[in-house]
Amino acid sequence: MSFTDATQYWNERFNKAEFIFGKEPNEYLVEQASKYLKKNDKVLCIADGEGRNGVWLAKQGMQVVGFDASDIALSKAKQFVQDNQVEVEYFFSDTDSFDWQANAYDAVIAIFIQFADPAMRERIFQNAYKTLKSGGVFILQGYTPKQLEYKTGGPSLLEHLYTEEMIRDLCRDFEILDLSCYEKELNEGARHAGMSALLGLVAQK
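Above: the chain's sequence. Below: its structure in token form.
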């Protein structure tokens, strides 16, 4: 999918008054951030959508940079930033056109970025590794193949879903600090609601 196609696709989804994934941060992110992140950390949020995770991180005193391929989502995110009286630096970009500077961030956050096909997913992991400082962490949450049975959110394509084996392979340069597959009731806006089959990862450079 080209950047233009991605923008069109996501703009159609985000073009409504409600926050389609809610305004609360992702639970797995909150849990892991309390263990691995600290105030003043420089954090990158991949495809941060309407800003629920970026804004929460900024409220914890972190320096947050985020990007998304939907300019409609970003305008909602920027308003959300203002409403919460925090600062987040947002860029209108997809994962391939973003400027992944080397050794720039203490953490990279990837919450439900399952628009990525296998080749793009490989590039995202490589770029996340490159852009992290030594000792920095990559926090990822996504759906496993069992999610196709639940149909409570996420992609319908099997190749976009995560298995533990696949994630271990993608993390060959990282040290894995947490890798868990579990099932849990999610309540993240209209798009992620109900029993879900999830995978969580924290990996360190």
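Helices lie at 3-14, 27-36, 52-59, 71-83, 118-131, 147-150, 164-170.
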